[in-house]
Amino acid sequence: DAKTTQPPSMDCAEGRAANLPCNHSTISGNEYVYWYRQIHSQGPQYIIHGLKNNETNEMASLIITEDRKSSTLILPHATLRDTAVYYCIVISQAAGNKLTFGGGTRVLVKP
Amino acid sequence: DTGVSQDPRHKITKRGQNVTFRCDPISEHNRLYWYRQTLGQGPEFLTYFQNEAQLEKSRLLSDRFSAERPKGSFSTLEIQRTEQGDSAMYLCASRFEGVMDYGYTFGSGTRLTVV
After folding, report:
1. Shortest Cα distance from B18 to chain A (angstroms)?
2. Which of A90, B2, B7, B21 is the residue whose CA sits 20 to 30 A from B109?
3. Distance CA B84, CA A102 (A)
4. How far lies B104's CA from each of A7, B2, B28, B97, in Å?
5. Of A87, A88, A90, A106, which is closest to residue A98 (Cα–Cα)?
């Protein structure tokens, strides 16, 4: 599975949009981009995933560049409860499909 | 079905003792994964099952570790002769193989402290 690169940390103001970048320059054609977050002392929580097209759900939007080498997770109106570590993961449809977590981005939403 | 359940939530044990953790996945999920997470790090893959078959084990899973999923439903992870380095959060996740439309669902984990 392709590796990902994320900034180690970022701050965001409450009520503002949070844009979390992820670089996955070695991604291959059948690999998906998944985003998870982990709030302190809890298990990771699924946010969103995509293959080629931009995706939106009730939690966030995922913007994938045309060459698929990078993506951005957008939390449209960050709240204090969005403070967490956010993981960008690239995964293939191959057997196993195990998630390989990197260091993630520690997001602190400030009032 | 309320998601993936893990039991216990916390376990404190003395070095050298054996411990066993349980994971109850979402009932229709045929894939079950175990991860370990140490402080400040992302979760690391340990092993996974498809139904009752254990299909892959990480090199992190030493001989002291064993996992089972006897009837393709719940799973147990046992650590024998615990060491202080085994102190970590042990996470379980499940999904339905072949369906990429949904994410993996994680439990809240079992936090192990070896003293």
Report:
1. 24
2. A90
3. 24
4. 24, 14, 13, 10
5. A90
DSSP 8-state code for residue A29: T
Closest residue in B to A102 (Cα–Cα): B42
Q: Do B45 and A100 touch (CB under 8 A)?
A: yes
Nearest beta carbon to residue A93 from set B31, B55, B100: B100
Tell me whether A106 touches chain B (CB under 8 Å). Answer: no
Chain-chain contact of B109 with A43 (C-beta, under 8 angstroms) = yes
A84 to chain B nearest CA, in Å? 12
What's the pLDDT tens digit per position in B53-100?
999 999 988 899 999 999 889 999 999 999 999 999 999 999 887 655
CB contact under 8 A, A96 and B48: yes
Q: pLDDT category, B28, cuts 50, 70, 90?
A: confident
Helices and strands: H and E segment counts in chain A: 0, 9
pLDDT tens across A58-70, in order?
Answer: 999 999 999 999 9
Cα dist. A102→A13, A90, B114 in Å?
25, 10, 25
Asked if the model's pLDDT at residue A95 lies above 60, the reply is no
Query: pLDDT averaged over chain B?
Result: 92
In single-letter form, the type of residue at position A93 comes to Q
In eight-state DSSP terms, residue A5 is B
Which two tokens mark A5? 């690169």
